[in-house]
Amino acid sequence: MKIQNCKIKQIIVLAMILIMMTILLASLSVNSNSVDFQENEPKRTWNEREIIMDWELTQADGTILKVERVSGGFNNPFHFYRINGYTLQYDRNIRSWCWAYQDETGHLRPTEYPAHLFDPEELGFEKDIRRSEEVTIKIIQEILETFIESDIPGMRRRPSHIINMRNTPNRCPTNGEVQSIVIYISLDDQGPHEFPTDEYVMKFDALNEYYQAVSYGKLNITSHYFFYNSSILSSYFTEQDSTNLNGYTDANALLLREQEIALYSIASLDTLQTKNIDIDINEDTVVDNVTIILRGDFGNKTNSILGYYRRRIFIPEGMDKEDPFFNPTINNIPVRNLIFHYENVVLDGSLGNFALAHEFGHALGFPDLYSYIDIDILPVGPWDIMAEYHPYYSDSLPSMSAYIKYKYTNWIEPADIPLIKLARDSTYTIMPLTNYIPEKYVALRIKAPLGGTNEYFIIENRRKDPSAIVDGSLPGS
């Protein structure tokens, strides 16, 4: 879940769920057990139904900004930040949030004035500046154009890594009794430590309970805990400066150091300790899951560095590709991917629960549902575990959407999320996503009236239950 310069194509057609749910809100009559869908569409205003939350942003010098995060609105999957009505925009060159302006094309741009150093009123800046409606619509259209599903020759296909994910090898199985390896790393200058503590056992038990709930009992995760005491110092994982010449110089250097210590920890495992653990239950000759936790307060909790899932081991230039260090195994079974977390994030209440569940979703093959490029894009809001973290999740995390379950697992049957074409006066009953019953509709795929052969929108029924493990903190439900 670390922001990279990756292609935005990894966001799937689900980017429009939030939009369609808003458009059709007046058409859904909800009771405790089902939703009846009927064709009607009231007129909405552009900024209607916005969600405003208190938020924190971190400047390059460590200053914490108390801001408002403004999300949503009809047909608007983006969010932005403001202080006292003045809009902020992130300047990647100085790694700080600056007061924003709208350029001649309608885009938001950062000024040269960091928000913690300059008064926007004295500078004469305008309040309530936003990306223009025209630009927002154009961005949405460009996103959607990359996600047309088609098996017809000559038509655009989705990226290969999200086609036929139910049968994709080298990922953690979505069904059965998964045995997950959890390695806790303590650095040389951090002193003695025991693992697992009761707090960690509770965290990973909660992870298992979450996936048991969202999979309708089809997936069970048993965590096996191991400890690795490294000879590396803490300064190795902090940024280099005049007082710390041992630190990393940039984000890529940090990634290599994280991989390095992860590989050392895997190499340290004792075969006698792991020989009786079935670490490859789907027999794809790859270890099902390895989770690494680095002790210490290194994780940046405000700039999206909550952890990440690595799909392959990166071999630096000049290194021997056959070197066993870069080809780790457990019980002679290759490790091809791993999850990396920082301790301070994992132990941080609902944030930690979210990070564990989100990254394990990647191990199961689920894509991110947020933008790697434009931090203002909020495709599905708080409605999917594969989106970004929201502070009001409390102890109950959101489910992944019906589309994720349909496309990437066999937790729901294709017949229970049918592709339909709306007809006047048509009525369908949709069961709540958390209460899936086979042979009952759990969602509807509605053919886009102006789209291609296989372009569609999805409507699902999400019911908030504050006492539930899943979907207990959904907003507006």
Description:
This protein is α+β, with helices and mostly antiparallel strands. It has a domain at 174-364: Collagenase (Catalytic Domain), CATH 3.40.390. Helix content is 18%, strand content 22%. The protein has a six-stranded antiparallel sheet with strand order 3-4-5-6-7-8, with no helix packed on it. Strands 10-9-11-15-12 form a five-stranded mixed sheet, with helices on both faces. Helix 4 crosses helix 8. The two termini are 27 Å apart.
Notable features of this structure?
477 residues, alpha+beta, Collagenase (Catalytic Domain), 6-stranded antiparallel beta sheet, 5-stranded mixed beta sheet, globular
Secondary-structure blueprint:
Blueprint: H1 17-23, E1 28-30, E2 35-37, E3 50-58, E4 64-72, E5 79-83, E6 86-91, E7 96-102, E8 108-114, H2 120-123, H3 133-145, E9 176-186, H4 198-214, E10 219-229, H5 251-267, H6 271-274, E11 290-294, E12 308-310, E13 329-330, E14 333-334, E15 338-342, H7 343-346, H8 349-363, H9 402-408, E16 419-420, E17 428-430, E18 443-447, E19 456-460
Parallel strand pairs: 9-10, 9-11, 11-15, 16-18
Antiparallel strand pairs: 1-2, 2-17, 3-4, 4-5, 5-6, 6-7, 7-8, 12-15, 13-14, 18-19
